[in-house]
Design brief:
Blueprint: H1 2-26, H2 41-44, E1 55-68, E2 71-78, E3 97-102, E4 119-135, E5 138-154, E6 169-172
Length: 178
């Protein structure tokens, strides 16, 4: 009986540690105290100037990725984040789109990483204002975030038996790549 209790305790500890690991992966130590985890996409959607310079968490599905003169840009369909800071997959709850910009091309992987696959990201980004994107034939203003850290979730692997969410996370940003 003691043996079973010990094994159950170890399993529970591993489960809790793995849940904490997601948060650690998404928000690196160097940014931990600077991110406003209560700031949501809905808050910045219409008035990002109010929150300019604030660090926030946002996530969603990457719709396009390209290199420009200003840096690497990702257009993202916003999707709510789970408690583990992973995009939930509930696209119907999306509040719109936003753009992530990596002005130094240091934190966002090569845009080819996002071609022809459903890739989800969670970004720690600084609110910089609005930018214009084209959706079909319509120009639209959307919030723009300067990336401080990005976690790319391998959505295609989510049902591989490794867990209920995402099997692999790829973390990009200073000081090292995962």
């Amino acid at each position: 009986m003691k043996h079973a209790s010990l094994l159950l305790s170890i399993a529970l500890l591993c489960f809790v540690a793995s849940a904490c690991q997601h948060t650690t992966e998404v928000i690196p130590d160097r940014l931990e105290g600077h991110v406003d985890q209560h700031l949501r996409y809905a808050d910045i959607k219409d008035h990002p100037e109010t929150y300019r310079g604030k660090l926030m968490l946002a996530g969603g599905e990457v719709l396009s990725a390209k290199r420009t003169q200003q840096g690497t840009e990702l257009e993202v369909l916003q999707i709510p984040l789970s408690e583990e800071l992973i995009p939930t997959g509930r696209e119907a709850e999306s509040k719109g789109r936003f753009v992530i910009i990596d002005r130094n091309n240091e934190k966002v992987p090569d845009p080819a990483v996002f071609d022809n696959e459903k890739k989800r990201v969670t970004v720690v980004g600084e609110v910089v204002g609005m930018t214009t994107i084209k959706i079909d034939d319509v120009q639209q203003q959307v919030p723009e975030l300067a990336v401080k850290n990005i976690t790319v979730w391998d959505w295609d692997q989510r049902n591989s038996g490794h867990g209920p969410y995402y099997s692999y996370a790829y973390r990009y940003g200073y000081p090292y790549f995962w």
